[in-house]
Amino acid sequence: MFTKQALNMVLVLVMIMTLCTSSLFAANVGMGSYTEYLPAGEEHPPETIYKTTNLTGAVPTNSWESSILWEQYSQPIFSHPLTFKAVESGLEIGTPRLGGGGIAYFGSHIADITLENSSMATAVDARADKITDWTTDVLMADGSNNIKATLVKGSPYVYATFAGGNPVLEFRESPVIFYGGSNSQYLGITIGGVSYGLFAPAGSTWNGIGTTRLTCNLPTGRNYVSIATLPDNSVSTLNYFKDHAYAFVTDTKVSWHYDENSSQLITNFDLTTSVKEGSNSNTIMALYPHQWRNNSLISPLGYSYNTLRGTMKTVAGTSFQTRYTYNGVLPSFPDVADLSNPGSFDANTLSGYLNELANEEFTGSGNTYWLGKTLGKIASALPLAEQVNNGTVASTLENRLRSTLEDWFTASSGESQNLFYYDNNWGTLIGYPDSYYTADQLNDHHFHYAYFIHAAAQIALRDSYWASDSQWGGMVKKVIKDFANWDRNDNQFPFLRSFDPYEGHSWASGHAQFADGNNQESSSEGINAAQAIILWGEATNNTEIRDLGIYLYTTASEAIHNYWFDSYGDVFNPAYGHEIASMVWGAKYSHEIWWAGGDEEVHGINLLPMTVASIHLAKHPNAIKVNYDEMVAENGGDPDTWADIHYMAYALYDPSTALNKWSDAIIPEAGESKAHTYHWLHSLNTMGTPDFTVTADTPLYGVFDNNGIKTYIAYNASNLWKTVNFSDGTTLDVAPYAMGISGVTTPPPSTDNHLIPGKIEAEDYDNMSGIDTESCSEGGENVGWIEVGDWMDYTVDVETAGTYTVEYRVASPQDTGEIELQSNGDVLATTAIPNTGDWQAWTTVTVEVDLTAGEQTLRLYASGQQFNINWVKFTLQSVPEPTADHGVEYISEAEALFWVKDGGSSGQDNGWIIVYIGDDASTDLHSKPGYYMTYNSSLDRWEYTKNDMHHNGGEPWEYQFNLTGAIGDEYLYTH
């Protein structure tokens, strides 16, 4: 029995544990959080991971070798040109025989050789012992006896070491030995028409020559062999491969650099080797077509392999490099309604479609994929609502993105939906509700989370404060890192989980537990992930993340054109019989999808979602037409479903035909909207198709050509004006946070400047950085979420130069706020914000400043933080006494205010002025035009503003005044 005292102690402990559990439920990241406790009733990846203690940190998944980690042995593993499979007896090694046709063309695993240990009848399991960027060490053991094999993507070699026994090679049929014998260090063999080199240490011998089972007797102190698939069975080839067979690959590393000036992506592939014998540290690498094509930086050997990915050419060494042109992405297509070319959209029609979208039911809930697609649809439409000045829809769409992301980026105690869970065992972030096995199999994270990142990027382009790490940016980066971790020092997530740096594209399956290896269906959703990362990086001024996105986007584009669309015509075997691959596997490319969809979906799955990043498809425009034509032939006509997706893609080939095919009766694909399709088709019909011959020195850009008329576009995500230089010599000056378009003034000239004296609502800024707005207790909205460095710009017209009282209506529960008032970059005054007790407890603080007359930009700059502001008011207190009886207030080279203190005898009704601008004062003033002046009673002077002056080049400028029309009454003022 418990005593009363003991019972009380138990209750206290329970309360403490409850409080601790509640506080530990969420791991906070800025304003967001994720849970480290599995939500009730949800699936999660298996507890058992087949890895050794050497493999620490987050577990790499979604790769070509991933089945090693998920099951006792493995499924076939496709490294090209070799294949492998871990089985009870050892490691199967093969070279695929190509064949098939119709629904798929195959390069399946065939076990030519099974590598075993003479002292190990069966391995307990196969475990990943080490994983680098494109290698995997597989350990198969039974007690102290083991085989450890290094599998290398793109290598003709497999490297193996043995403990407790000798290498045994079991063949599926008796091999033909074309070189060597029992006492040879190395052998050349052929099995089923495929040749291999078997390379042992010096001093080794072989038992079983002429049978299906060879044992290599290793010399003392040497425990290794390497095996290579050979391009042919010549002895010279065997010897060349022998010379490189003892440089065992121990590490691989990819690195990239985006050269902004040349718009080039440079990728380095570096290998580390350990020389087992001899002095040659170089290995042989087989390069995929996307790596060797148009690559003057490599010198291919005379050896190549015919593989499922086309011809793989070889190079020798420990590194190679690729260079690709990055052709830019944009947050959206620009407003082309003002361009001179015909076919631009109708703003009222577009606004109507946007109203329909805003009226669609929206809850912010759903699984990560289908909610994600909705977020993507909204994110693509938001810029369009702003273009047509539909503020109501723009506000609705942006608020939906904000509220949904903030909900999902926050985990609360007891919550099991609309949150992210971190699985420490695997090192992965899982969103719930999950879908398509994103939780228990870790599938498709890059597909699903891309939509979240794109939505976040659109907010970040409008609100840098929201995107800061202290707010919601920290969670956005966590989500990116889950599938595309760029930081090798961050062990919370594996490096580039979903992306295969050697094969150049992503993999969708987390486990790759298929006889055909890993797979990826929607390569376009991989592109969507990359473009979202680019936008996020640029919007948050994080060049490391931006360049990660550029690397993923540019590299994947090259792979997609090679392996999904066969744009060069040298990858697909004619027996396949199709123009595109809807799905690419380690061991096949196929004309099918994961569900029983129609031909439109088979041909459309690698198109959606259509974002401006989709323009990369137009690098090979004929491939777009071929895809569409085959779809029409198979479907028996134009598409019945996903028609909007197909027409949007076709517009990259032929905009006018695509526009004519589309109608608003078409039901949009789930991730599309009529508004976006309408805008897309009309934009391309106006601008023309992408021109990839011209690059720019900024990451967010595009160039289009309509029958020789080029449109140059660039987006400036910074807070300073940017001059963008295009490679053909064109330049474009782009305003902060704005889209620049050739032929269109950017930003549009303001027709609604704020007048001073007067009151300006804080939320009526022209540009801003970092702030946000909210409902104000005094009515309307106020500006808030202000941190140091945030600012708002207001274009104003100061009617009269003088001293002004500036009133700020402010509120804050802190005493850390401070405002700098700046005019055209000059600090006029600094004002401290007091602690008012609450974010909506308002007070007015004042300061006096001197303002010059005329148009200027006033900036409210936060030199302190944590305050709200509702409005600012300017009241004229005094004007400076003129220091002369006449003068000129310079406004610009084309505009000046002329004034005279003494109006002379002319009176207020007939005062006039003659203005002469030049370098010669000896001019007959009667030949110059006269301008009537007006009387400014507050300054007690006569004034005239001339706004069309033209300086003829002389210095100084001279202004001559005549108030009565008599030459003798003139004044002369030199500027």
General description of the model:
The chain has 975 residues and is α+β, with helices and mostly antiparallel strands. The protein contains 17 helices and 58 strands. The strands form 16 sheets. An eight-stranded antiparallel beta sheet has the order 9-10-11-12-19-16-15-14, with helices on one face. Helix 5 packs antiparallel against helix 16 (674-687). The protein is elongated. The model is unreliable at 1-23, 745-751, 903-910, 918-926, 951-958 and 962-975 (pLDDT under 50).
Can you give the mean pLDDT? 89
Cα(first) to Cα(last) distance is: 101 Å
Strand content: 25-35%
Share of helix among residues?
10-25%
CATH topology of the largest domain: Glycosyltransferase
The biggest sheet amounts to:
8 strands, antiparallel
Any idea how many domains?
4
- Strand order, main sheet: write it out: 9-10-11-12-19-16-15-14
Shape by Cα distribution? elongated
Structural class: alpha+beta
CATH architecture group name of the largest domain: Alpha/alpha barrel
Which CATH class of the largest domain is shown? Mainly Alpha
Radius of gyration: 35 Å
Low-confidence stretches: 1-23, 745-751, 903-910, 918-926, 951-958, 962-975
Would you report the number of β strands?
58
Give the number of helices: 17
Organism: Orenia metallireducens
Enzyme class: hydrolase
EC number: 3.2.1.39
Protein name: glucan endo-1,3-beta-D-glucosidase
